[in-house]
Amino acid sequence: MLHHAPQTLTGIRVREGNDLSDRLFETRDRSLVIAEPLSAEDMTVQAMDDASPTKWHLAHVTWFFETFLLREHLPGYKVFDESFAYCFNSYYESLGARQPRPQRGLLSRPSTESVLAYRTHVDAGLRVLLEDRGADPRIAKLIEVGIQHEQQHQELMLTDILALFASNPLHPIYRDQTISSPQAESPPQRWISGAGGIFDVGYRGSGFCWDNERPSHRVLLHPHRIADRLVTNGEWLEFMRDGGYREPLLWLADGWARACSERWEAPGYWLMRDDAWHQMSLHGLRPIDPAAPVAHISYFEADAFARWAGKRLPTEHEWEIAAADVTPGITDPKSRPFIPQPARSGGEPDMQQAFGEVWQWTGNAYLAYPGYTPAAGAIGEYNGKFMVSQHVLRGSSCVTPPGHARVSYRNFFYPHQRWQFTGVRLAETCA
Amino acid sequence: MLHHAPQTLTGIRVREGNDLSDRLFETRDRSLVIAEPLSAEDMTVQAMDDASPTKWHLAHVTWFFETFLLREHLPGYKVFDESFAYCFNSYYESLGARQPRPQRGLLSRPSTESVLAYRTHVDAGLRVLLEDRGADPRIAKLIEVGIQHEQQHQELMLTDILALFASNPLHPIYRDQTISSPQAESPPQRWISGAGGIFDVGYRGSGFCWDNERPSHRVLLHPHRIADRLVTNGEWLEFMRDGGYREPLLWLADGWARACSERWEAPGYWLMRDDAWHQMSLHGLRPIDPAAPVAHISYFEADAFARWAGKRLPTEHEWEIAAADVTPGITDPKSRPFIPQPARSGGEPDMQQAFGEVWQWTGNAYLAYPGYTPAAGAIGEYNGKFMVSQHVLRGSSCVTPPGHARVSYRNFFYPHQRWQFTGVRLAETCA
Amino acid sequence: MLHHAPQTLTGIRVREGNDLSDRLFETRDRSLVIAEPLSAEDMTVQAMDDASPTKWHLAHVTWFFETFLLREHLPGYKVFDESFAYCFNSYYESLGARQPRPQRGLLSRPSTESVLAYRTHVDAGLRVLLEDRGADPRIAKLIEVGIQHEQQHQELMLTDILALFASNPLHPIYRDQTISSPQAESPPQRWISGAGGIFDVGYRGSGFCWDNERPSHRVLLHPHRIADRLVTNGEWLEFMRDGGYREPLLWLADGWARACSERWEAPGYWLMRDDAWHQMSLHGLRPIDPAAPVAHISYFEADAFARWAGKRLPTEHEWEIAAADVTPGITDPKSRPFIPQPARSGGEPDMQQAFGEVWQWTGNAYLAYPGYTPAAGAIGEYNGKFMVSQHVLRGSSCVTPPGHARVSYRNFFYPHQRWQFTGVRLAETCA
Amino acid sequence: MLHHAPQTLTGIRVREGNDLSDRLFETRDRSLVIAEPLSAEDMTVQAMDDASPTKWHLAHVTWFFETFLLREHLPGYKVFDESFAYCFNSYYESLGARQPRPQRGLLSRPSTESVLAYRTHVDAGLRVLLEDRGADPRIAKLIEVGIQHEQQHQELMLTDILALFASNPLHPIYRDQTISSPQAESPPQRWISGAGGIFDVGYRGSGFCWDNERPSHRVLLHPHRIADRLVTNGEWLEFMRDGGYREPLLWLADGWARACSERWEAPGYWLMRDDAWHQMSLHGLRPIDPAAPVAHISYFEADAFARWAGKRLPTEHEWEIAAADVTPGITDPKSRPFIPQPARSGGEPDMQQAFGEVWQWTGNAYLAYPGYTPAAGAIGEYNGKFMVSQHVLRGSSCVTPPGHARVSYRNFFYPHQRWQFTGVRLAETCA
Description:
Four copies of one chain form a homotetramer.
Chain A (H helix, E strand, L loop, with lengths): L5 H5 L9 H16 L4 H5 L9 H20 L10 H5 L23 H22 L3 H30 L24 E4 L2 E5 L15 E5 L2 E4 L5 H9 L11 H9 L8 E4 L2 E6 L2 E4 L11 H10 L7 H9 L34 E7 L25 E4 L16 E3 L8 E2 L3 E3 L2
Parallel strand pairs in A: 8-11
Antiparallel strand pairs in A: 1-4, 2-3, 4-12, 5-6, 6-7, 8-9, 9-10
């Protein structure tokens, strides 16, 4: 797992200012910086059905700009290559047939070189478009969507590279790092009280958000407590030593079936080497750091761990309310939800590790907010169509691009998936 | 689909009085009445992995009484056959190894005859137990659980028999029925207004309920409307004619993938015969009745239909609140949740078809209520362990035993399943 | 494994005389005798895709007579039930659609009772046909085919019942048997010399044979030796103790892959009970008899064993030539192939256990003899269409009907299959 | 399909002289020439489980030389990278664990560059070894095996590249080619008479052959005829037009099941474009040439075609005897089998297209010759372990390296496989 801030990782910092053009091209560049340590071969291979090749990501986000911006709104724009739509459409049914997802790794052509040329071509188009029509709020809105979309794929690039390197017998290192001296022991877990009552959740600001964060609406919370920090590797090792992976009564039935069929006995990417647990990371195979947050766990594991600990997972809105107070750097203050929260008694801990470590599984299935409407047109064929059988994760991870997350952000994965940087924060209902 | 009340089906009516013993043995008898039209062969075959043989159901519910009542609480009880625990344990991990679910149909032995002898043996034990210790509330409670559990399996017996007969090229008739003259056209669909506000939901009475209906708690509802009746076959045919099964944009992504891979083009058990749609039912292969509620649809289909109709599925609590007023015959008044509902304006329709037709898919994933605790011990290894990846259905169906359903009852199935009597009621959010 | 002659098993002896009518009805009766210990439930369940339910076998062989004899050649014959063709056609593409093989076990209807009535109906038709046209050689020929076909299914009934009972946790006994006192130790294996030269093989007589035994033709054999008896369970235990199931170098690559994926560590139906190997048999679960021939082994295992033993499997014609001299009781002398075999030196052993124990895997793939022509019409849609990817077995087994086998008989199964009574006899090439 | 001689393809001609060193390094170079039109990305991707990436082939053949020559026989040789054994061992169980075959395409590392360095390193070692010990016949023998082994992989590289490019929506061209003017119509098919009698087959020379071509031994052939040329695309189109892919009675049962499940309706790589059949080839997507031999057909298809044509496939030895007379350029005269063939009557045609077009399916299963012994040690873990469930192909293809084939050469594939350059020559038995 990456313990350092993502801007350290890529060496590039996307300004969070108001200049759309700057943000666009800095984002575009950042994708290339992510790809920089990779060979063309690395960028072409698909680690598994859930993952995509880096090259595909680089081309897909570019196709997104070409399709939704340049084709529609830049008069005279010349499509780079008509065959790319088939290759790099992800799942937009309204935009025609496409390379089946599990076969993205067959695309040795178009070459990486040609994908880079595609990026240059589209970037040039975007420059013209911005100059000509950047002031048009409709264009600005679409560009913003394109930026955010590319940022999502930047995170996926990194998780998918890790999946690829973790499947390689040589355990390649994506980016080397001096091993930091072992972290001090993790501080004791403390509990943040969450009052019952009606709260506003969802995005209410005027900046960008995904459609699934809206509409902002009221929810009723019941009195609860939520942990101030994430569950650590050290705590997970206790769970393992206590037979957590061998006791079916701790697990959801589907989780136990999956744990058995895939022979889980530790989080994803953990390997026993010389009688000690190691974890494959973007820095290579490293000994487990007991103080670091556990990562690469499925919802099934998070749920089993919580049951073992006598706790439960937080709901997404318990998380949102607790996180809202402590997130000044993450999001534009204007966009923070208004929260009529009862005054907290002095001495209560603040939520730590809300962002930048691991996505945090919540107890909520990923479903529409009341009154949810997807965006119109093909661009709306996105968050809404995945609203079944997945669970919401909140926060962000060590590979989420800076500035991308929000307190109202809703990530989602299937309960068995664990190739993402996913972890767990505990909660409990007050009697 | 069965259009008649279930007591007509089985010719036996379980009294809903207070006499536990009567209710127990009437329930036990009703299972045999359900099995009566079947040969030993019919009772042995497993239609598919999701379904179980009738014989297995008959034995499993009996094993449940033997295990949780007689073994524990009847001194001197002689276990009928020690090998039955392996054969007829469903999924209780704490009770040892068991016949894998997809292989229940391999059990040509124990014979049906021996399963019937098992039932007699256990019934005799139950009579003694009731006589000796029936006044002990702990025993009474367990017997109630056993009754409710057997009722659930009575519904499954009927759905699984239908699955078996539908897979048979001869289209056997489970129970013949004079074809009723075609129903009058279905009345127009009207809308029941649901106010926003805080409501109590879940079971608050002193009678029996499943652990997943508790704790009773408050929920916040947003203003909405819910249809007064179910979607009909006639309306479903319109959806089909309008290309509902061919338009990916109407579907959740997982639903579309499933519809394609299983080549869905109509609800479950629908067959084209002589250029007309028919449906395989417990009364054999029958022409579609356009006025009857559509049945045997998956969550995916229900959701796609609602999107096509410009509506959505109701939430489980919208359903519960709307159904609460109109359910005098279903449940003991004491057990009805207290609902501080704003007075409804005159002229509003009442909810029709809440019970006894088809289970109604809701928009809610099947998850724990706040503060949920499963029952202690092996008997608690039930509703809780299935709380992932499924959706809640409300109401009851034409094959639900009389007296079994409640306004707070939460049924649950996976979004792709459609061998149950499942249908759809529409709802919409008020702007 | 059954160690007794099959007529003991069924208590019925089919006369091997010339009276076709007697042989026909004795064969028809024998099928019922085989089914006699079974309940209707036992007769309905399908143990696995490769096996069929007893009821299906009973109906299928009857459908064969109805289709090829009565429908075609008995004027005025009334088909018993037109829907049976769909249910009980095995694989005759030219005779229309049929119940998919892996779903034969779904046929709880037609009932066993109705299948028995079907048999009675068809038998009555056959009696009339025989009386009216029994002298017509074309009819006699078809009846002979029907008899032989039903005999093949009699063997399958027994192997499929064993597969069913072996999959049942109660280990039911098909037919009880006093356990014979342990056999004396098996005699030492001796070697029969086989000269090189040209030999006639295949069926040359005037009686019945399958098309795949023809045309009789010449083959060139190379000098070799063939064992006089079968490999025993005791010898197989040595192979197991020596790591035979753990050493990939002993195995064909496909065999090793199969052994790993199915976790083979002993022959089929072997189970460890109280630290001793047992084998599930038609007489229930029995301790392994070291002197009995090993049974329920795949070609892959037979081949690995032979390699371990420094030998090989015999070719089908080495087997045929060696068996020809010692088979007076098996087949009509007229039908024995003429074999210009060099005089054997005195003192050579004779082949033992050629018939009535286990089918013996040979090194030959199952392919057409030179000049092979399948029978004309639908009835020819049989042996020929399976001539790929299978291996020839010779001899017969303890569950082969008496009088069915021949020295030229060619049985065939896929190399991974082991639910049949299949064993191994060793051979070696002379330097 | 490639219609030109392979040396044209690669621009390099491996001398067939006696200088082992020249042959070795020319062969080594030829592999690089084959890879030359490919990007590193093309060389890394695995088209399907049966195929391997070019990079993997390049490394595997090098590992073969390192393992069997340099490690064993070159004192002081420094292994290039110990981890390569895991990556590039194909299936040698005696040489330890290895990358699972279906995951060879995950190996984005080692890089192509590093594989090329590996080749250089091993070539340097081979030069030293040849200089020091090239006169040692044991070394020379092993080098010869390495050459032949690399040649086999050269053919696989080309077939696997085609598989990759055929799976790419852009239909990339491996090597461009001026489209030759359409071939003249194919000459009429004529028949070569093959006498019955005893013939010597298998390799008897003193040059190199694979162990499966030995021992040379006598076989008995029956009188037959064999076609003088291959079946053409034009003839295959007739088969298609006549419903060949829709008539189950033409097919082996396993073949029909495969044809249905994979929806075959034409040979492999055939695509309908603008109402005309095209075939994907190493020269890109080209219209079908009716005069060219049909290629990319499975055994199942070859067999069905032959049945449709009223013929059969030749046996491997009918093929070998007929081809022996006409193969002066293919193989060293010393190595031609001695064939006591009866004089052929004048006017008989000669066998055409025996080599260099497509491999020709024979009716023989791939099995050991009498007295077959695999080579000792790990190097013998090759041809023998595949001797089950496959069929023999004879001749060679347009992508077989020059000098590699022999009249006694036995290629083998599973009956459903069709990614190789495989075709069909007809035969028939004389009455």
